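Title: Comparing notes on inverse folding

I've been comparing how different people in this forum approach sequence design from structure. To keep things fair, I'm posting one structure and asking everyone to reply with a full sequence. Here's the target:
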């Protein structure tokens, strides 16, 4: 005898996630994973943050105080507060080391075989480069934020304008990270990479107007300073930073002939150069075997 009053079994299926959500997460995931990797490195190595601030602090306190005292003694001071003038350069100096460290880590990843695992992942290679760049830029901004916290020693005022300064430092840090990644995908030896990077960073800092006003220089030096992209980053930070009048005086601001470029134009130069360098690094990385 067959019973016909028993209902057939019903299979309840869970509705699938909308296809658009899956595609969005698949696109964003490599950026998030590589950014979190750099944040994890920073969290597990706090000594790295402390040591990274030693050089810019010495640059600011020792050099700034010594030259300011010497100028006052000689009675030839053209800047009212040289330590305040140095502070924007110290901020830029603080973000360069952690940003370049991303390039060093990529060279080591190639040497240890980690890069091969990245290359065989299902993610686009462009997303790997962009994820590393965002992680390095965020790490550099953290260093800049730590130095901003002690900006009172240079007469910096703690106002909401510091948030704009932090965004500018994030852009400068992204530029440094892009240069580091471009060098990392071009140079395969760790020792060679460090030599090239160190020899490149020192002239960039010295010829950026970080230690002396960018105007009234001899012909060849004036040309080098005006062609240095870091000059525009330092000048933008200096003019945005709330502090003594020396930061915004006519004597210290950058002049191109009779034109004083606005801050947004200087940031535009940095953004365009960052996009170009990052695009070149992505192209070279996509051809990595």
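Reply #1:
Here's my take.
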């Amino acid at each position: 005898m067959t019973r016909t009053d028993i209902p057939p079994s019903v299979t309840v299926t869970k509705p699938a996630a909308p296809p658009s959500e899956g595609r969005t997460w698949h696109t964003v995931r490599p950026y998030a994973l590589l950014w979190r990797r750099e944040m994890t490195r920073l969290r597990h190595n706090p000594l790295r943050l402390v040591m990274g601030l030693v050089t810019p602090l010495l640059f600011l306190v020792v050099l700034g105080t010594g030259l300011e005292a010497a100028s006052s003694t000689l009675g030839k001071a053209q800047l009212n507060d040289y330590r305040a003038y140095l502070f924007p350069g110290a901020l830029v100096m603080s973000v360069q080391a952690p940003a370049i460290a991303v390039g060093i880590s990529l060279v080591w990843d190639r040497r240890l075989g980690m890069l091969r695992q990245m290359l065989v992942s299902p993610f686009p290679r462009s997303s790997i480069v962009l994820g590393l760049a965002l992680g390095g830029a965020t790490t550099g901004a953290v260093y800049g934020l730590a130095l901003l916290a002690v900006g009172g020693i240079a007469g910096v005022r703690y106002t909401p304008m510091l948030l704009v300064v932090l965004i500018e430092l994030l852009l400068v840090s992204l530029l440094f990270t892009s240069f580091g990644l471009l060098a990392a995908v071009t140079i395969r030896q760790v020792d060679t990479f460090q030599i090239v990077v160190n020899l490149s960073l020192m002239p960039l800092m010295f010829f950026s107007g970080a230690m002396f006003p960018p105007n009234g220089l001899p012909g060849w030096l004036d040309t080098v300073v005006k062609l240095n992209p870091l000059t525009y980053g330092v000048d933008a930070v200096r003019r945005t930073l709330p502090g003594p009048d020396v930061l915004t005086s006519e004597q210290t601001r950058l002049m191109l002939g009779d034109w004083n470029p606005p801050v947004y134009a200087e940031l535009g130069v940095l953004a365009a150069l960052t996009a170009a360098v990052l695009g070149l690094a992505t192209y070279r990385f996509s051809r990595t075997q």
